[in-house]
Amino acid sequence: MKPKISGSGHIGANGNRALRVLDAVDANIAVLDSEGCIVSTNKGWRSFSASNCHLDGSLPRQIAVGANYLKVCSEAVGESSENAMLVFEGIRAVIDGRKRHFSHEYPCHSPDRQRWFLMKVKALASSWPREVVVTHIDITERHRAETELLNKQRELNAALLDLQEMAERIKSLLGGVYLPASKEQRLSSARTSAPEDSLLAALSRREKEILSALVRGERNSKIATLLQLSPKSVSTYQSRIFEKLKVNSVAQLVRLVSTSVHK
Fold first, then answer.
1. C-beta separation of 75 from 53 below 8 A
2. From which residue to which does any coiled coil extend (predicted)?
C-alpha cells in the first residue's frame, strides 16, 4: 500500500521510515507517475524550488506536485530546449520500459553563480502503472575539477606536440635538411589520433566524427556547422556516444580516448 501524499508533496502521517529518510538526502528528488506527473517530492526538491522562485516571489508551479514534468520538458524553448528534449526522451524511455535507467548532466546557472547538475532516472520497483524516481544531484564542484583537468590535459597534449616537433627537428638536423611541420600538420596529426578499434567498434561513422570533435574541445554549435547538422542532432549524437562508451561528461570522454591512444 502506498503512503498517503499531501498536496504539498509532504509524506503523510502513515509514511514509512524509508520515505522520510529521503528528506535527509542531499539531492533533489521527485516521483513521477506513468504520465509524467509529479506525485511526490523530497525536502531538497522543495527547498530548491523555494530558493529559485519567480521575480514576483511565487513558487514555480511547473515543478510542484501535480505538475506534468514531461510536458514542461517537451514545451521548453530557448537555450535549454535541447537539454529539456533529451530529458523528456530519457524519462519517457524509462517509463515505457525501453531503458532501465537514464542519466544526464546539464547546466543550471543562477544569476549569481554557475551550477551543474546530474539527473538520474530509475523506475520504482514493482510499481504498475510504472512510476519513476527523478534525482538531481549538484555536481558543480566535480564539474569544475573535471574542467580544470581537461584544460591541463589539453595543455599537456599541446606540450607533447611541441616536444615531438623538437625531436623531429633534432633528428632532421643530424641527418641534414630540416623541414618543419606546419601548425596545421601538427593539429591534423592530433585530430586523426584515434582510440583502439575495440573502443570505436560500437560507434557509427557520424558518431566517430562527433567524438573526434568533442575530444578536440569543439562546441556543439560549431560541430553542427562543420558537419551540416542541427545543434539538436549533435546533442542527440553526443548523448548516444556517452551511453555507448559509458561516460557522463566530455571530460570523462577525453580521458577515455587519451588513455586508449597512449596505451
1. no
2. 142-169
